[in-house]
Amino acid sequence: MKIHEYQAKQVLATFGVMAPRGRVAGTVQEAVAAARAIGGSTWVVKAQIHAGGRGKGGGVKLCKDLKAVEAAAEQILGMQLVTHQTGPHGQRVEKVLVEEGMAIAKELYLSMLVDRNSKSVVVLASTEGGMEIEEVAAKTPEKILREIVDPTVGLLPFQAQRLAFGLAIDRIDPKLVNPAASLIAGLYEAFRAKDCSLAEINPLVLTGDGRVVALDAKVTFDDNALFRHKDVVELRDRSEEDPLDSEATDAGLNYIKLEGSIGCMVNGAGLAMGTMDIVQAAGGSPANFLDVGGTANAEGVEQAFRIITKDPHVRCILINIFGGIVRCDVVAEGVVTAFRKVGLAVPVVVRLEGTNKEKAHEIIDGSGLGARLVMADGLRDAARKAVSAAAGKG
Ligand code: GDP
Ligand code: MN
Q: Where in the chain are all domains bearing CATH 3.40.50.261?
C-alpha cells in the first residue's frame, strides 16, 4: 500500500526523521494560509500523488512570495499530473503540500527495501541525490553504497556511521555526521516497526543552516502486514488506486489487471501463472491475473465475475479451479448461480479438476446456458476453447 508524501513525512517524524515544516492543503486559499502560518520568505508547493518524478512533471514549485504560492497552488491543484510513473493519462492532484523552502547545501539519496537475494532489509545510499536511482545504478553503479541489515540484530550503529562517512558528510560538515547517522537509524526503525516494503528519501538534504532533512519521502507498506497496523490502513487514499484493484482488495481477491481479452479466474497463485502461460501458448492473451484463493464459493465467484467484467476488454472468462479442498460440484453450482445473478454478457469456459469432477460436468452441462457456459476437458482444451470464444468463434 502506498501513501502520500505528506503522510510519509508525518509517520517518519515520529521516528525522528525530520522534514521541512509543512502543511497539506486542498484549496488555493488553504495553501496561501499554510504558507503564511509556516512563515519565512520561500516556500515549496508540491503535488500529492502516489507517484514520483513530480518535479520534472511540473508538480513541484519553488515560490519566493505569497503571490507565487497562490499561483503555484492554482496551477497544481486539479491538474492531471503526468510523470514517468503515472502512465500517459497522469493522476489528478487533489492536495498540495506547502513547505518552508530549504537552503540546500547537498542533495543525497537514501532508501531501504527488502532484498530477496540476501533475505534482508538493505539500505542504499548515494551522493547522487535528486536523481533517479535507476539512472545512477545504470551509469555509475559504484556511487551506490549498500548496507545489509541482519534481521536478528537490526541496523547497527557502525553501519549508519559507515554510510554517513561513505556519503562524505564529514567533508561537507563534520557536525552533520551524527545527525545523519541517527536519521538513518530512525528510518530503519520506522521501516521495521511499520512493516514497510520500501522507504525512500530522495533527496535527503544537508541544509546551509546545519540540518539533515528529508526533502522528499516515499513509503510503501507490505499489504500482508496491514492487519497489524490499523493506523497505517487509515492513511489509504482510494482515489489514487485503480478502482478495480480497490474492489478486489476489499473482496480479499488477489487481482492484477493485464492488457489481454481473456479474463482468468483461478484458485492458487501458481495455477494462475500456469493458466496465463497456457492461454498465451494457445494464441490468446490474459486480461488479468486473479487468484480467488483456496475456497471458491458462489459469493467469491460472483465478486470475481463482477471485477473481471468491469474491464471492457474482456471477451471471455476462463475458470480454472483445482478441487482439492473445495469440491468441483460445489464450485460448479457456484459458477452457475453467479453467472445468472451477474447476468454475464461474455461466454465462460470452465475447467474443473479434482474431487467430484463428473458431478461438476453434469451441473455445467445441465445449466441450460448452452454455449455461454461450457465445460472443458483439461487445461489445453480449456485454453483453446477460451481463445476461440474470445475471438468470437465460440
Ligand atoms: P519528486 O520529483 O516527485 O521526486 O519530488 P521531490 O520532492 O524530490 O522534489 C523534486 C526536486 O525539487 C528536489 O530534488 C529538489 O531539487 C527540489 N526541491 C524540493 N524542495 C525544495 C526546497 O525546499 N528548496 C529547493 N531549493 N529545492 C527544492
Ligand atoms: Mn524525490
A: 243-390
Domain ranges in the chain with CATH number 3.30.1490.20: 21-101
Q: How far is the CA of 124 from the centre of ligand 2 (A)?
A: 15
pLDDT at 67: 98
109 is catalytic: yes
What pLDDT sits at residue 246? 83
| Domain 243-390: CATH superfamily, name plus number | Succinyl-CoA synthetase domains (3.40.50.261)
Distance 60 CA to ligand 1 centre (A): 7
Condensed to tens digits (0 to 9), the pLDDT of residues 6-49 reads 999 999 999 999 999 999 999 999 999 999 999 999 999 999 99
Q: Pairing between strand 316-323 and 348-354?
A: parallel
pTM: 0.82
- For the chain, give every residue range classified as CATH 3.30.470.20: 1-19+103-241
CATH fold, domain 21-101, is Dna Ligase; domain 1 (3.30.1490)
pLDDT at 299 (0 to 100): 82
pLDDT at 220: 97
Q: Which CATH superfamily is domain 1-19+103-241 in?
A: ATP-grasp fold, B domain (3.30.470.20)
Question: With a cut of 50, which residues of the chain have pLDDT below it?
Answer: 394
Q: How far apart are CA 113 and CA 244, in angstroms?
A: 27
Q: Specify the residue with its C-alpha closest to ligand 1, atom 7.
A: 216
Kindly give the distance from the C-alpha atom of residue 139 to the centroid of ligand 2, in angstroms, as a whole number: 19
Point out the catalytic residue in the list 6, 99, 109, 302: 109
The closest alpha carbon to 35, from 72, 76, 66, 67, belongs to 66
Per-residue model confidence (pLDDT) at position 238: 87
The verdict on whether 99 is a catalytic residue reads: no
